[in-house]
Amino acid sequence: MAQSRAARTRELLILAAAAEIDRNGYRGATIAGICKAAGVSMGALTFHFANKAELAQAVGEQGARTTRGLAAGLRVERPPVLWAVGAVARGLARLLEDDVVVRSAARLARERPEAVGQWSSSWSPVVCHLLEQADEAGELRPGTVPQTVTDLVEYLLTGVEAHPWAPSGPMGAQGVVSRLDQVWPLIERAVASEKA
């Protein structure tokens, strides 16, 4: 019973920290604000995490785990393989839109890469592997380098993560996944071979 309560408290702290980081960034996130949002005492926080940096690390790790799970779980169900790259990109954009822990992990990677590591490392190997498969299948335009397209997907998703998507924001009520659905065909046309 005590172990499950401790696990729940830890999860509440990670969620509260993610929400605080999402709103205010790492520097603006406060331990007091995190404790208040989680409904726990400072003692409960320090039982689980020595400091804000350790808590941020846990947010980054949980967000990366969720992201790796999504990227690894997407399988090529139909040709072309290039279609699967778009499916991964849309899935990642949806995570960024819907999952505060993933969004905060991506923000932490941007703000504190030396401490948290790169969020993209949790999904870019899958995308690069798919692009290498697409290249071997002749789906990529001659001269297209899979790593370069992987970099393009990373830039695109960094823009998604950094761009506000609230209905009152510049993205409007349309949302980032809908916007990505509009942009992705342009990328596919640019990199796909004639036969793809």
Q: How would you describe this protein?
A:
The chain has helices at residues 2-28, 31-38, 42-48, 52-73, 81-98, 100-111, 113-116, 124-136, 146-162, 176-191. The protein has 196 residues and is mainly α. The protein has a domain at 58-191: Tetracycline Repressor, domain 2. α1 packs across α6. It is elongated and about 60 Å long. The N and C termini lie far apart (56 Å). Residues 165-173 have low confidence and may be disordered.
Features:
mainly alpha, Tetracycline Repressor, domain 2, 73% helix, 10 helices
What is the CATH architecture descriptor of the domain at 58-191?
Orthogonal Bundle
Q: Report strand %.
A: under 5%
- What is the helix content? over 70%
Q: Extract low-pLDDT stretches.
A: 165-173
The number of helical elements comes to 10
The geometry reads as: elongated
Topology:
Elements: H1 2-28, H2 31-38, H3 42-48, H4 52-73, H5 81-98, H6 100-111, H7 113-116, H8 124-136, H9 146-162, H10 176-191
Helix pairs in contact: 1-2, 1-4, 1-6, 4-6, 5-6, 5-8, 5-9, 5-10, 8-9
Short description:
This protein is an all-alpha fold. It contains ten helices and no strands. It has a domain at 58-191: Orthogonal Bundle (Tetracycline Repressor, domain 2).
